Amino acid sequence: MITPTPITLPIDALKSDVEKVIKKNNIIVQADTGTGKSTRLPVWAMALGKVLVVEPRRVACTSLAAFVAKTIDSEIGERVGYAIKFDYRFDESTNIVFATPGVVLRWFAENQLAQFDVVMIDEFHERRAETDLLAALLIKHDKHRLLITSATLDSEKLAGYFSADVIKANAKSYGVTVNCHSRDTQSTPTGRDLEQRLLPVAQNAIARGGDILVFLPGKKEISSCQSLLKHLDADIIPLHASASESDRKRALEIGERQRVVLATNVAETSLTIPGVVTVIDTGLERRTHQRNGRTALALHAISQASAKQRAGRAGRITAGFCEKLYGEHAPLELFTPPELEREDLIETMLAAACCGVRLDELAFLSPLPSKSLTSAEARLIGMRAIDDKGNVTEHGRLLYPLPIDSLFAHLITGMRTKSNREAMCDLAAILQTPMRVWQRQSGDLALDAYKDWNRNVCDVVTSIAVIRGEQPDEVLVDSLALNEARVLSASLREALGLPQWEVASRFDREAFLRNVIEISPELVFVRRERRQQAFGNGISEVVLSRDSDFPDTPQSAIVFDQFHLAGKGSKQTTSYATCLAPIPFNWISDADLGIWEVIEHQEIDGMILDSKQRVYAGRIIETVQQESEGDGLIHAMCQQILNGELFPGVGDRISDDVAYWNLYQQFEAITPEPNIEAATWLCDRLRTLGIESQDDVELIDGEDLMFDGVPEWELKDFVEKYPLRLVLADLHLSVEYNKLKRTVIVHHVKGSRKDGPKRWELPPWKGWKIQYKKASRVITVT
User: Fold this and answer.
1) Which CATH superfamily is domain 176-341 in?
2) Which of 136, 222, 386, 547 could pair with 380 in a Cys bridge, judged by C-beta atoms 3.0 to 4.6 Å apart?
3) DSSP string, 254-279
4) How do residues 336-365 score in pLDDT, each as one tens digit?
């Protein structure tokens, strides 16, 4: 066997220092990308035992594992292996395992990583949510030697957090010349006319020679630029999370032709693209952030730290160039905010609970947002994933190992039948695949044929059919994305002991959707009456995405998936529904969603009837008329009594007695009690008397409805002193008292008298100012 020729890397000069420090303490290695820290440090750490290397990206895990295995003359899966979602190559004798944070957290929940002696967290400066949680757990557990690598973060702050020594390494650089392509030196990165601004810069870079690395915010922009640049004399290679294996290989290996690699942040750290002479930096990335209580996805300008990382990709093999499509002095933030500060904490909190710790009890490098903590706890308690004390439940332990969002895991485990669980596994697999798996063929003819096949125009029906290979020709499928979705579906089915999709059980749409409503009623949305493109569930609002075929007629739907985009306003966030299943209103009624509102009481043939509406998210779902009962009956009887329709005269007496009692409290009581309403008192009195049905009315009379207010021996004199109504010649008045202003206002009620009352016609009211009010006119009575 031929031993590979050793490659000298910048970090090799620090080998003795690293080996010396790591024997007695945790260590932080601060080094630029390309120094070799990801490949050398795990090998040196083997002296302490088995090494686990936590890599933020799947492609980095597999690529680094293969490279390290080659450097120590081993096959992948023997001394060096990897573990990513749905794929692993290692065994109990493997010395170094590269793994993604999600996989490592699940191992920690099982046995606190007891099989490893050293845990290396690579590229910690990216501040991924799972990586931050893992770091906090490892610090609390304090059973492993920690090796942390970071390119840009404050090393002193990290040293204090990890109780570690710091070693710094610098990558060899031939220098990078930075050119800014912007009229204004302070202009910020923008996506406007991005492809057109990129083209001449790329052409000049190709003419200069050497490979070119272009940083773009996402797959959409990569695809557009790939089409625009395809006529150039170069190999145009896309590199993103869902790129094909052949594209990844072309990007990571120097080819015969000059290359232009169009990459997302996947090429900013972890992966080294060899042969790069020129970096073209758009200054953009697509990332999440919290806005108006939601995790929104939007284009953002990168941080200064990211800009430095990107520029550093050039100048490794010869003098390099960084062409920036934004101003030299653009006001960029210093660092990219950690994910835990800009995303919801539901998955993170459940992971912590499964590891036996409350999330708010862990020490993080930066504090967690209190609103996000409260929201996540409420959601998980609602799912029955944690209890009121924050401890994980058996249901939560069942949800956590499933490699999907907790909502879909909750839906799967809540399904009543085997066929529904299978259907939910397939639907979740489609929705959790990063790439778009299917889309309808364009054109009216294709739409008509699609509607003939899927008469409800239900995205759920199509998605499940696509997984199972039952879709019509009008549904176009991305084979690469479909394969990834089927792998996920197979994994979910295997974990739950279900048959694979090739022999799936028959799918019954109605039974499935009614089961979903039962488990997660918050997924039910109804159209806004005036804005038919918008749907609400009483908590949030979504609008139909542009490519949705959701019909115009259905007024309600189950919304399985949505994405949030930041709007122009400082707090505006638009949520787009991307997977909908139309449902009729009566399903909402059958699920007993919404609230009943009594809109009218009627008496028909001596029976009191309520006209009631079921209202959900502002829409009237159904209207019914039924015999009054409970509080509805009490309020109807109260209204009838006060109106004089029931027990004539009693309602007026109660209204007067209550009014005089409130006035008495105001003027005479030593310790005044709060004012009461006649209707409130009467309803409480009817409840006290045990009124439950209309037949009970015959068991009471007006004497049972006596209000015990102003003492009887004081009442006559008090009424004479402070009357509430006055009857004069051709004039009826009501009386209002303002004790604070010592003012009496007499209001015109009815009467033919043109002039107001005379002072001698009114009670004495000594020391009070008296005013007469008719309509909007107020005059003083003298």
Assistant:
1) P-loop containing nucleotide triphosphate hydrolases (3.40.50.300)
2) 386
3) --SS-EEEEE-GGGTTT---TTEEEE
4) 888 888 888 999 999 999 999 999 999 999
